[in-house]
Amino acid sequence: MYFLPKAPQPGMVADPDALARDFVEAKKVAGSATQYQWQENTFKARSKLQAGTHVKVMYAETNATLGVTNSRAPVLISGSGYDSDNFQVPYNMSLAKIDDMALTWTSKYPELVKIIFSFQYCRLKRTGFGSSGLIATHDIVRFIIKLDIDGYQPEGAGCYKLSNDGSVRGTGFAGRSMASCITYVGMLPAGNHKVVPVVGQADSRGLNLFNNEYISKPLAIPPAPGVVVGNRTMSILRFARGKMLES
User: Fold this and answer.
1) Between residues 98 and 168, which one has the greater pLDDT?
2) Is 27 helix (H, G, I), strand (E, B) or coil?
3) What is the pLDDT of residues 52-80, one digit of tens each?
4) Contact at 8 Å (CB) between 239 and 26?
5) How many CB atoms lie within 10 A of CB 127?
6) Closest C-alpha among 13, 22, 28, 12 to residue 50
7) Which residue(s) pair with 204 in the sheet?
8) Based on the number of CB atoms within 10 Å of its own CB, is 70 exposed (0-12), middle (13-18) or buried (19 or more)?
């Protein structure tokens, strides 16, 4: 159960114990944002957080249908039954911003923030993708997604990072569909801020060989359109602090 803190009286200094309790309770609610929270109105506890005195909550939601039925595959390209709220992911064109998820604000003080981006991804089943000389496979492309925070894309906030131990795990997702959640916790200084998810597609060929020159070559028949981000939601929890944690 979440008990709302009492509002501080004018001229009073915020109680650090109350701040700590607010953070713990807010963390519990934010922790409930799993890969299933991309569905409409599933993050029910926002109103409880917004009523608190020390936590500011921002969120963006877009509800898109993939048009799946028992007798029909997902509708992922323009045409009958296609939902224009699906976000088409470009291939080999760097990373595109999902602008309807962008959240901006101005903070007077440094803030501890927790960002939760939950999303649904799906693409058409296609084999080959113009990959001459290779065994036809629909896993030849990989979906890349990151969080862009004030123009910086922190490591770990997305399935894209090449790890320091030489493993190729984390450079992208090659499967046909996924429902997942990206989280980020960190300090932001006072000032103007913008958070937006960015997505793209790249070639998965040669990843295990670390042959960057080879995998940078575009496919003859790119797998687009038909690669989309469907339902999606982003929530940002902001906790004001008088100074940065390390200072």
Assistant:
1) 98
2) helix
3) 557 788 989 999 999 888 888 899 988 88
4) yes
5) 11
6) 22
7) none
8) exposed
Residue with tokens 């028949």: 221
- Cα separation of 66 and 76, whole Å? 7
- Dihedral angle sign, alpha carbons of residues 31, 59, 35, 154: negative
Query: Which amino acid type is present at position 111?
Result: E
Which residue type occupies 222? P
The label of the residue with tokens 């409409």 reads 40
Say if CB 237 and CB 112 are below 8 A apart. no
Tell me the CATH class for 16-240: mainly beta
Report the 10 Å Cβ neighbour count for 189: 11
- Cβ pair 126, 138 in contact under 8 A: yes
pTM, entire model: 0.72
Tokens of residue 132, six digits: 């001459």
Domain ranges of the chain: 16-240
Task: Supply the pLDDT for residue 125.
Answer: 75
Beta strands in 108-226 (DSSP E): 111-123, 141-149, 177-188, 191-203
Please name the amino acid found at residue 69.
Answer: T
3-state secondary structure of 23: helix
Let me know if 71 is exposed, middle or buried by CB neighbors in 10 A (0-12, 13-18, 19+): exposed
Residue whose pair of structure tokens reads 């501890």 in the numeric block: 112
- pLDDT of res. 191: 94
Distance of alpha carbon 127 from alpha carbon 136, whole angstroms: 5
User: Nearest Cα to 76, choosing from 170, 143, 160, 172?
Assistant: 143
For 24, list phi and psi in degrees, rounded to 5.
-60, -45
How do residues 127-152 score in pLDDT, each as one tens digit? 545 444 444 455 677 888 999 999 98
